[in-house]
Specification:
Helix content is 81%, strand content 0%. It has 228 residues and is mainly α. It has helices at residues 7-24, 26-29, 31-46, 51-74, 79-84, 86-92, 97-118, 120-126, 134-158, 166-192, 198-226. The protein is elongated, with a radius of gyration of 19 Å.
Length: 228
């Protein structure tokens, strides 16, 4: 009789499957990054060529670009698994459903949001972001983007049983995303003015830790409800 797979074995298998599927649809995988680049370019064109005007709004523009790019791929977080029956197998698997959800969310973050975080210095140069503000911006994005993915996973799980729920997902996710945007962009603005931004970073960190504990459980419960 075969022993039940461990949590790490299950995580490796799920990550490997997700990466193989992502490679087959690598054109679709590039859409969030291209969308974020498009947002940055449009803001740069709309605000003109003045470095002073661009540098003032650069942190907020980059945060909005990352947030909107995350919304673009949010509806597909569990959609494919629901359509091919994989979510039913997740429920029957001998490991907690919340663990599988957490692995999927972290994989989704690593393949969609993390490349944008790594590309932030380049995007910042396009908006004449002051280099002194770059470390704070990277810190807020490193804390805020996984928080956005975890919050978005709950919304995606709630709507996984609905067809054509893209607009509904965005409407439900935006109220949850706004506080993260406010703290993230606000911390960079406070740092640029010489103020203490540690409070905003602590709030982002606390939200991330709380979401790591509760969001997978909430998303797992939502998936069970949606599939019953």
């Amino acid at each position: 009789m075969n022993a039940a797979p461990s949590l790490m074995q299950t995580a490796r298998a799920l990550v490997g499957r997700d990466l193989r599927l992502l490679w087959r649809r690598r054109g679709d995988a590039l859409q969030p990054a291209l969308f974020a680049l498009l947002v940055v370019v449009l803001f740069a064109l709309g605000l003109g060529t003045s470095p002073q005007a661009l540098s003032k709004v650069a942190p907020a523009v980059l945060w909005v670009a990352v947030l909107l790019a995350g919304l673009l791929s949010l509806d597909t977080l569990f959609r494919g698994d629901a359509e091919d029956g994989s979510l039913e197998q997740w429920i029957l698997a001998p490991v907690p459903l919340a663990w599988l959800v957490l692995v999927r969310v972290l994989t989704h973050w690593a393949t969609t949001a993390l490349p944008l975080v790594l590309a932030t210095p380049l995007l910042g140069e396009m908006l004449h972001l002051p280099r002194s503000e770059l470390p704070m911006l990277l810190a807020t994005l490193a804390l805020g983007t996984p928080l956005l993915s975890l919050l978005g996973a709950v919304v995606a799980a709630l709507t996984v049983g609905m067809r054509r729920s893209g607009i509904l997902v965005a409407l439900l996710a935006l109220p949850l995303y706004v506080p993260v945007l406010v703290f993230g962009a606000g911390a960079v603005a406070a740092g640029a003015q010489g103020l203490d931004a540690s409070g905003a970073l602590l709030w982002l960190g606390a939200g991330l830790l709380l979401s790591l504990l509760l969001a997978p459980l909430a998303a797992a419960a939502a998936i069970r409800i949606a599939l019953t």
